[in-house]
Design a protein that fits this description.
By secondary structure, this protein is α/β, with parallel strands linked by helices. The protein is about 40% helix and about 20% strand. It has a single domain, classed as Rhodanese-like domain (Oxidized Rhodanese, domain 1).
Amino acid sequence: MKIKTSSDLVKNALEEIETISPNDAKKLNNDKICNLIDIRDIRELNRDGKISGALHIPRGMLEFWFDPTSPYFKEGKIDPSKTIVLFCAAGMRSALAAKTLQDMGFQKVAHINGGFQAMKQEGFEIEKE
């Protein structure tokens, strides 16, 4: 049996989702017209810092936080009128996560090309603890 690789899954996701640049994400975030969501692991946040204004939703909980029938649903955390903009460290997990949210029925979803590393280079404000 031939399995699909993670690279195959990311490639397929990228063909179906919206990818935005860190510069475009910065404008959306500064204008407060998006839900900026960091799906990195908590250890990555502790090590590398957090993007100011981003909501942290661990990748493993994303579907549950967005599902109103789930006991883990986070009512009021996301503004449904705004685009959901996801990022991870480099852009692969966020591509898969964006595809998953689209599959769940969310229409205004994007991910940031290059993830946290590209956002850092773009000059996003980073909070360190």
